[in-house]
Specification:
Layout (H helix, E strand, L loop, with lengths): L3 E10 L5 E10 L2 E9 L8 H12 L6 E7 L4 H5 L24 H13 L5 E6 L5 E7 L5 H7 L3 E3 L8 H7 L4 E7 L5 H18 L14 E3 L2 E4 L5 E5 L9 E3 L3 E6 L6 E6 L4 E8 L3 E3 L6 E5 L4
Parallel strand pairs: 3-4, 3-5, 5-8, 6-7, 7-9
Antiparallel strand pairs: 1-2, 2-4, 6-8, 6-15, 10-17, 11-13, 11-16, 12-15, 13-14, 15-17
Helix pairs in contact: 1-6, 4-6
Bound molecules: zinc ion.
Zinc ion (ZN) binds next to loops.
Length: 307
C-alpha cells in the first residue's frame, strides 16, 4: 500500500446526474501517532488554503511522519465552483450547518458526510480559512481544548472567539477533537507570503503534536484578543480603502477613517467606516477598491486594550 493515497467520500448525486464528492488525501506515517485532519474550502471563496495544502502534501515525508495526515482540500466543491461563501444550490453557509442532515439539502448532506465519514477518523483538526475573494485576514482562533495547538501555528494574533453555531470546529471540539481555525491571507494579496506562513504553521502544529521531529518555530510576539467587531456595510457599492494591506495586524487609533463606500452610479459617498475602539488591531482589511454588498465583511477590528 502506498503511503500517500487519494480517496473520495461520495455525498450525493444531483438532478443533473453529477456526483458531489469530497476528496481525501491520506499520508500514512511509518511510525505510530495520531491522525491530524485538515480541511480547506469549507467556504468556496477561500482558495488560498487549498494551495497551502498542496504544498503540505508534497513536503510531508511518510518516512519522517509519526501518525497519519488526512487532508480534505475541497470541503464544499459546489461553493468553490461558484467562488462563493455559500452553496449556490441552496444558499447555505456550510460552516453554519454542522452536524448537517443525512437527507437534507445538499449543504446539509455535505456537513453530515464530513461529520460521519471524516471527523471520526481524526484526533486533531485544523480548519483553514481565508479572507475570501476581496478581503485579507490574519488571525487564528484559540482552541478551547488545546490552546497550545493554536499558539504553535505561529500567527501573531489569536482570538478567544465566541463560537458561531454550526461550525465544523465547534462540532469537533464538542466531540473532544481539539480544533484550530486559521484565518490567513485572501484577496489575492501577497499569496506567496501567506502560503509560506500557512505551510510553516501546519508543520509547526505537526511538530507540536509530535507527528514530526523538532519544535514549532514561532518567531513573532503573540497577542490574544478577546473583543472583535465585524464592520458590515448597510448598503452596497464600491469600497475605497483608506486603511489597506500595510496596516493588517497593526494598531490604528480610534476614529481613524478605514474606508468609504461610494455609489458606482452617482459617485456620492454612501457610508464610511471608522475604527471603533480606542486602539484597534486591524484583523481583516481590504487591500484594493472592491465591490461590496450589504452584510459583506469590510473590516474587522480587535480591541487592543483588552488583550
Ligand atoms: Zn471561511
Amino acid at each position: 500500500m502506498s503511503p500517500k493515497q487519494h480517496e473520495e467520500i461520495l455525498v450525493t448525486t444531483l438532478a443533473s446526474g453529477h456526483r458531489v464528492v469530497l476528496p481525501l488525501h491520506r499520508i500514512t506515517g511509518q511510525q505510530p501517532g495520531p491522525t491530524l485532519g485538515i480541511t480547506a474550502l469549507v467556504h468556496g471563496d477561500e482558495p488560498l488554503p487549498n494551495a497551502v495544502l498542496r504544498r503540505v502534501l508534497s513536503e510531508v515525508d511518510p518516512s519522517q511522519l509519526k501518525g497519519t495526515l488526512l487532508v480534505m482540500p475541497v470541503a464544499n466543491p459546489l461553493a468553490y465552483e461558484a467562488l462563493s461563501r455559500q452553496t449556490p444550490l441552496d444558499g447555505i453557509n456550510l460552516n453554519r450547518t454542522f452536524p448537517g442532515l443525512p437527507n437534507g439539502c445538499v449543504t446539509e448532506q455535505i456537513a453530515h458526510a464530513i461529520v460521519t465519514q471524516f471527523l471520526p477518523q481524526v484526533q486533531y483538526l485544523i480548519d483553514l480559512h481565508s479572507g475570501g475573494v476581496f478581503p485579507t485576514v490574519d488571525y487564528v482562533y484559540l482552541s478551547k481544548l488545546r490552546p497550545e495547538m493554536s499558539h504553535a501555528f505561529g500567527s501573531p494574533l489569536l482570538y478567544v472567539g465566541h463560537g458561531f453555531k454550526g461550525t465544523l470546529s465547534g462540532i469537533a471540539e464538542e466531540r473532544n477533537i481539539p480544533s484550530l481555525v486559521v484565518e490567513i491571507g485572501g484577496g489575492s494579496m501577497m499569496d506567496d507570503v501567506y502560503i509560506d506562513r500557512g505551510v510553516c504553521g501546519v508543520l509547526n502544529v505537526m511538530k507540536h503534536l509530535n507527528m514530526l521531529d523538532g519544535t514549532p518555530q514561532v518567531t513573532v510576539q503573540q497577542t490574544v484578543f478577546k473583543e472583535l467587531i465585524y464592520l458590515h456595510p448597510h448598503v452596497g457599492g464600491v469600497l475605497y480603502p483608506e486603511v489597506g494591506l500595510d496596516q493588517l495586524g497593526k494598531v490604528v487609533s480610534g476614529g481613524t477613517l478605514l474606508g468609504r463606500i461610494l455609489s458606482p452610479y452617482t459617485f456620492e459617498e454612501m457610508e464610511i467606516f471608522k475604527a471603533p475602539f480606542a486602539r484597534n488591531y486591524m484583523i481583516l482589511v481590504r487591500g484594493a477598491i472592491t465591490r461590496v454588498n450589504p452584510g459583506d465583511f469590510v473590516y474587522m477590528c480587535a480591541n487592543a486594550d483588552v488583550a
